[in-house]
Amino acid sequence: MGRKGKKKSEALPPSDPEESGGGPITLMCTAMVGIGDPPQPFLVVRLHRSEEYWSSNAAGLLDMCLAQLHSPSSDRPPIDRKEMNRTDAWKKDGCPCMMVLDELNLWPSEYISARGEVTDDTGECYVAYGCASNLRQRSRAMWLSVAISLLMSPKMAMSKEKFFGRFPGLEEVVRQVQQQKKVFFLNQQTVQDEEIYTFLRQLSSWPSGDPRAWIAPGEGPCEV
After folding, report:
1. pLDDT of amino acid 188
2. How far apart are CA 189 and CA 186, in angstroms?
3. CB-facing half-sphere around the CA of 66: CA atoms within 13 A
4. Region (Disordered) spans which residues (predicted)?
5. What's phi and psi for 216, nearest 5 deg?
6. Cα torsion through 78, 79, 83, 86, rounded to 10
7. 38 prior amide bond cis, ω within 30
8. C-beta separation of 29 from 15 below 8 A
9. Which of 23, 25, 71, 118 is 20 to 30 A from 48 in CA distance terms?
């Protein structure tokens, strides 16, 4: 069982062991950040280097999403995960995603993000970001972020259940991100660091990892 949620006014421990002095860490966390003017919500997934379950399933989940997204009647070939548009950008070079995270004082040890972009058969574009301390884990974080963004699309509404059955814990992750997006629009502005920390929600079921490493946040700023 996870620990009881903290009050909204309490900040959660940092999610990097170096930042927390060896204290609790979050092995996987998500944030909805606003990029552009006016800000539009984009999902960012962060994977700790010790995370195992989602790291090992990231490629398979995205491949399954891309296959589902492809229309059999399309003249275009199926989207290949290895050929999708990807951009790695550094905070020092003014990466928009990293600049927003820096403004929010969220994950201060991160200095680079991977931006993934997928365009479906109708021309609709999906963009999401991943953060991690090394190239391999950053790729996996980006794959997860793109996959979750695809699962939130209305085009995937009829097929989500088979994904949830295949990947334990995925339903809770998608529900968490959907809440983050709803609150983002309710706020009608880029969320602040204290608020975004409250979005890191304790999952009701976690397939792997030491429960002592989980962080149990409080409730969000409003019910949605």
Report:
1. 57
2. 8
3. 23
4. 1-24
5. -100, 105
6. 170
7. yes
8. yes
9. 118
